Amino acid sequence: MTETRTRSYSGETERERTVDDRTIDRETSDSEATRAGERTTTCPECGGSLITDTEHGETVCDDCGLVVEQDGIDRGPEWRAFDSSERDSKSRVGAPTTNMMHDKGLSTNIGWQDKDAYGRSLSSSQREKMQRLRTWNERFRTRDSKERNLKQALGEIDRMASALGLPDNVRETASVIYRRALSENLLPGRSIEGVATASLYAAARQVGNPRSLDEFTAVSRVDKMELTRTYRYVIRELGLRVQPADPESYVPRFVSKLGLTEETQRLARDLLDAAKSAGITSGKSPVGLAASAVYAAALLSNEKVTQSQVSAVADISEVTIRNRYKELLETSEGLTA
DNA sequence: ATGGTTTTTACTGCGTC
DNA sequence: GACGCGGTAAAAACCAT
Q1: Which domains are assigned to chain A?
Q2: Within 7 Å: CB of A10 and strand C?
Q3: Residue A298 predicted with pLDDT over 90
Q4: In terms of pTM, does the model score above 0.90?
Q5: Are A45 and A206 in contact (CB under 8 A)?
Q6: How many CA atoms lie within 13 A of A41 on its CB side?
Q7: Which of A170, A165, A166, A176 is nearest to A99 (CA)?
Q8: Distance, angstroms, CA A317 to C1' B10?
Q9: Per residue in A302-330, pLDDT tens?
């Protein structure tokens, strides 16, 4: 089938791609790994065991931290409690916990409004007292270095995720990865920013919403070399298994950025599928392939996009697009004819 | 460090609006 | 003439050994 590829993208070797039924199945089945209602016991990415965390309402892979499913349960209050003891035993009211905050959102917060529980304003001496409490509460909350570290890192992750338009499940996954890196003492000698970026990069790829390294370096404070280095390091030390990015996962983004139709998107996918089964995708940049497929599809469906537009959106040279899209068209002709 | 592969850079020619 | 497109050669980047 796929002959050995001579090149791999960002750290994964071709060996990992060898005959793995799950991988094949995933490629043929059409959508992301997070279809609702699907019950799996093994992680779609790394094959590790899944753990259903009812407290957080998430199904998480124990090995790689991939959040497979979230918001699965009702976190609302249990209303039918008839006396106080029953309320104590039944009630699960409270803010949902989240990995996106360094303390999972469980620490005490002292409100900024100088009002008491009944909404009345506080006396000046009470106000001063509350201000002192706020200060100390904040100090204690982030006292120890790991907490402080986490707080900063999660802030960075959040910032970058916003800048790149990554959804919440990516952030959650990135948070889990970062926590693991932190708890396994991977941080010493490496910058928080670097590991945070690497975590987010890994998370984005795991959930099938990848961004290119260049896009990350654009929003991160670390340069490309440090990012790849720490990424490799984190992946290796944590034993994460991240598949090579699937070109198809870039397609929807490019299509929407260029204002093309669904039809074109479908065509682009078909082209990529054909290319994959023809085995000409080996060693080629996934981004380049996706960009070329989009361009070729637009051509086939008579939509107007120029090579330079596609190249700008995908951050790929026009030459590469030319080379790839010729190959794509050739293989698809051989298939349909 | 080296070698092989892919991507990028830079430049040229062609056709069209 | 500007623009989109195609091709080429050399340089750079990248990965594996």
Answers
A1: 145-238 (1.10.472.10), 247-336 (1.10.472.10)
A2: yes
A3: yes
A4: no
A5: yes
A6: 0
A7: A176
A8: 12
A9: 888 999 999 999 999 999 999 999 999 88
